[in-house]
Amino acid sequence: MFYGEFEYKIDDKGRIPIPPKFRGALKDGIVLTVGAERCITAYTPAEWKKLSSSLTGSGLTRSKLRRLSRALFATAFVTRIDGQGRIALPAPLREHAQIADEVVVVGVNTNLEIWSKALWEEEKTTCLEQAWQLIESLENR
Question: What average pLDDT does range 20-49 have in this prediction?
């Protein structure tokens, strides 16, 4: 399980550290792809495989499945953590997420998200405002 948020600076080669407590879970590699809300989503190979398998039985129409598959798989990159605990963020993904210098690595249960610091602050505010409404709706069941 991934949780917490960790701020880092991106280096001149486009690399960021992976939080030390997550490195063991990511020792087999990391799959990076575009995230829905202007972030980069990072999966373990096992979670990536589960996501891939879930799409085939998702009930989506063929055209929607093709589009979703193109969006996820055509933009995916496989990388490994280097000896200093860093990964390189590919330029197309950095552009998608508007990452220039400061990033926040966010644990979101089964995967990580990598955000520009500014966009994360906006998203976090929205999430916190809506989380209480969602919790209350779950309690009323």
Answer: 96
